Amino acid sequence: MQQANIARPGSAEPWRDPEAEPYVRILNVTKRFGATVAVDDVSLDIYRGELFALLGGSGSGKTTLLRMLAGFERPDSGRILLDGQDVADVPPYERPVNMMFQSYALFPHMTVEQNIAFGLKMDGLPRAEIRDRVAAMLELVQLKGFEKRRPHELSGGQRQRVALARSLVKQPKLLLLDEPLGALDKNLREQTQFELVTIQEKLGITFIMVTHDQEEAMTMATRLAVMNHGYLAQVGTPAEVYEYPQSRFVAEFLGTANVFEGLIKAEGPTGALIESTEFDAFFQSDTDPPKPEGARVFVAVRPEKMRIRRAEAGELSGTNRLIGTVRDIAYYGDFFMFVVDLPEGKSIRVSRPNLARLTELPITWDDRVAVEWEPFATVVLPE
Amino acid sequence: MTRRLSAGQRLVLALPFLWLSLFFLAPFLIVAKIALSEGALGIPPYAPVLRWTDEGLLTIVLNLGNLATLVSDPFYLDAYLRSLRVAAISGVLCLVIGYPMAYAIARAPQHRRNLLLMLVVLPFWTSFLLRVMAWIGLLADNGVVNNLLLAAGVVSQPIPLLYTDFALYAGIVYCYLPFMVLPLYATLSKLDPVLLEAAADLGARPWHAFLTVTLPLSLPGIIAGFMLVFIPAVGEFVIPELLGGPGAQLIGRVLWMEFFINRDWPMAAALAIVLLLLLVIPIAWFQHVQGRASR
Q1: Quick check: A93 and B201 CB within 8 A?
Q2: Engineered SS bond to A230: which of A40, A289, B52, B154, CB 3.0-4.6 Å?
Q3: How does pLDDT run across A270-285, given as a tens digit for each residue?
Q4: Mutating which of B194, B195, B196, B202 best tests the A interface, going by the most A Cβ atoms within 10 A?
Q5: What is the mean pLDDT of chain B?
């Protein structure tokens, strides 16, 4: 989980610039299927050159939003602007937008070359130009020598690259990717993540990607939007959304979070103090409270930001400290995950990096432990 | 690669071979034998191929005269060519009518597809002969169509419909259309609609997407449907006999005539053998294409 975002040297952050002109504007878009609202009044600005990720579970509306951008669905209300042009009434075959389908949707009766050339042929480009552009694409996705193969003669990874080449060859203003890495196995997926980002930076095409895989979204995206039940739960850079979740849903969807309930005790210059309503403990944060004193709030603390040690005799829970018993220790290789039962009946997760090699852990099952964290790790959720 | 088969597996494999030998190979050999024998007055109306001479020698008498007549007499050659042409035109007509039907059924909502397919197969629930007879009632000079046209004042006297090429094709297309629709439906319903979205996404207008994606991917269904119409239509007897004009001397009618009117069994058998050989070529090609498509 704790992978850093793939480095983007010199990448600007146009979303912080109030003067910057958004490239894709989604304005109050709503889409219903029968009685269900698939996309609920979504407004979103995406800037030129971004690799934007729509992240959500199944039924969150992310794919419907993508299909509206491609032109396969029409919004019931709202507008979609692409480079200043309203595209709501533009059919898919006239949009300067291409899509890489989750199933790749390669034409089984055509060779790799014919698949990639298809879009250019439909545009009626001269033969020589088609040949050159297809060759350049094959080089870009490292598929030289596979021109005459048919899709069923390729591996999953090769098929994925053909699909990418086919959708990029027309140099669209916007490339939509529907679960681009979903069908690949884990190792290939990681490698392909880097390749996709490299290609995107090389071509400078704006990418919008739909994924249910938070790791994929975090590592690849310039910004991401977490979707839930058709609305945008939160939009921001991966780090912003991970470190400053705005709601319990986002905190728990992105990574792991221990969520507690409490009442705001005091407002002050030093951050917020929250009294737990579940145990005899306090949570201290270094940020200002989002609500007035006495309000009920949720507090989230990430497992990797907590420390765990054996509790001293008679030690009790206090401020940013909880006392409990180790119920489970899971070995992940790169870290350990402790599951600690609190006497009040709740359990929390604490992780600890695996710094040494096969040493005896100082903490074992059924040990009485103290879990502590710094005020910066206490995230008070505004919603 | 050799593989030992158990007794049970041998038995299972032997059954269809036995069936085909008994009910296909044996009759075929008998017909072939009759084709190569001489006609005779008697029962059966042909001379045996194997004969004992008075000196007690076994002789084989093969008569290639029937086959020679088939090739040299333009009457038979014309009948073959006309049959192939009628079958080919019927196949194309069935394709043109059946493709939109199959496409519409494949694109219909799931819950309605079975009903539509049942409607396609519904005519099979009545006798083939009765259905062809019904066309006589429709197309005769005092039939339903002419009466309607007369009543509507479109024509002043009945137009000849029955015993024309029109009636012949109407009958064949009507009877064989389901054999075209079903294999077309099978391939079209397997076609992934995402492929059409991909084509549209890459700039193909609906008509282009149909020509470049749907049509080539439904080719196995087109070939299967065409063969299922073409092959039985070549040897069709009932429809040309009941609906076609006197000019519709198709090979099925000629064969029937040789057999029952002229009582020339060897000639009829020779006609049947040549017809079979003519059809083996497209059938073998069809098998080849099907085998390649299923790979």
Answers
A1: yes
A2: A40
A3: 788 899 998 889 999 9
A4: B202
A5: 90
Contacts of B194 in chain A (CB under 8 A): 101, 103, 105
Least confident residue range of A57-71, A301-315, B36-50, B177-191:
B36-50
Please say whether the beta carbons of A160 and A192 come within 8 A. yes
Rounded CA separation A341/A366 (Å): 9
**Which domains, from first to last, does chain B contain?**
64-294 (1.10.3720.10)
**Which residues are A56's β-sheet partners?**
A227
- Which residue shows structure tokens 């080089």? A139
Terminal Cα distance for chain A, rounded: 24
pTM over 0.80: yes
**CA dist., res. B119 & res. B90, Å (int):** 21
The 3-class secondary structure across chain B, one letter per residue, is CCCCCCHHHHHHHHHHHHHHHHHHHHHHHHHHHHHCCCECCCCCCECCCEEECCCCCEEECCCCHHHHHHHHCHHHHHHHHHHHHHHHHHHHHHHHHHHHHHHHHHHCCHHHHHHHHHHHHHHHHCCHHHHHHHHHHHHCCCCHHHHHHHHHCCCCCCCCCCCCHHHHHHHHHHHHHHHHHHHHHHHHHHCCHHHHHHHHHCCCCHHHHHHHHHHHHCHHHHHHHHHHHHHHHHCCCHHHHHCCCCCCCCHHHHHHHHHHHCCCHHHHHHHHHHHHHHHHHHHHHHHHHHHHHHC
Decide if A30 contacts A187 (C-beta within 8 A). Answer: no
Q: Phi, psi at residue A119, to the nearest 5°?
A: -65, -40
How far apart CA A376 and CA A373 sit, in angstroms, is 8
pLDDT at A103 over 60: yes
Using CA coordinates, name the residue in chain B closest to A98: B201
Nearest CB among B197, B203, B213 relative to A123 is that of B203
> Mutating which of B187, B191, B197, B201 best tests the A interface, going by the most A Cβ atoms within 10 A?
B201
Q: Which residue has the tokens 């014309």?
A: B78
In angstroms, rounded to a whole number, what is the distance separating the alpha carbons of residues B261 and B253? 11
CA proximity to A320, closest of A367, A377, A270, A263: A377
Inter-chain residue contact B192 with A105, CB threshold 8 Å: yes
**CB nearest A122 (choices: B195, B208, B216):** B208
